[in-house]
Design goal:
This protein is an alpha+beta fold and 200 residues long. It is built from five helices and nine strands.
């Protein structure tokens, strides 16, 4: 997932005080109007808003949830865990793009958002071919007890909506889950810091 898809600019941070007992240690919900989400409009604010609205509408009309898409991708390889997931409704058939970690490889899956079927097979990339930061993040993912699916569940409850994307981000030495949730007509970004995820 690219930085533009992962991060929503111009957001106002709001700390949450109530989380599930088994949830990651800290959650921050940010909300506002995103400037881009699968948009190719080159900075036109109105066109960006329309592109986001179309993406949200396609997401809402999908039969498969983000949790189902992650489960489908993880089931392809016993013991796999999802590192990144995003909804893509911008072209053709709406799909989820899911990256899973299994046996020192990142597996890329495209899941049809209407049927749950795998689209076009899967591709694997050895971890050794990733840059040092990505390898470090993925190593940390394997060391923490919480999974992206846990973070999605907490984020959906915290932001009162449905997750459209999620993945790992590192800020100031901390590895966090960043989940984008559709709540009403707004997009909210929920940042969750899993216990034990702090690194140098």
């Amino acid at each position: 997932m690219t930085t533009a898809k992962r991060r929503i600019s111009g957001l106002l941070a709001l700390a949450l005080s109530a989380l599930l007992l088994a949830a990651p240690a800290r959650a921050i919900v940010s909300s506002g109007t995103p400037t881009t989400l699968h948009s190719d409009t080159d900075g036109d604010a109105e066109a960006d808003r329309q592109a986001v609205s179309r993406e949200i509408e396609r997401f809402r009309s999908s039969s498969i949830s983000i949790n189902q898409a992650m489960a489908i991708a993880e089931a392809r390889h016993a013991g796999a865990t999802t590192a990144d997931v995003s909804f893509d409704g911008a072209s053709g058939v709406p799909v989820y793009r899911v990256k899973t970690l299994h046996n020192d490889r990142i597996w890329r899956h495209t899941i049809n958002a209407a049927t749950g079927e795998l689209v076009g097979g899967e591709a694997a990339l050895p971890l050794a071919e990733l840059d040092l930061d990505d390898r470090s993040n993925l190593a940390a993912l394997g060391a923490i007890k919480h999974r992206l699916a846990d973070a999605v569940h907490v984020a959906e409850r915290a932001a009162s909506g449905k997750a459209i994307s999620g993945g790992l981000v590192r800020e100031r030495g901390r590895l966090n889950f960043a989940i984008v949730v559709i709540s009403g007509d707004n997009l909210k970004e929920v940042i969750l810091e899993p216990p034990g995820a702090r690194t140098k």
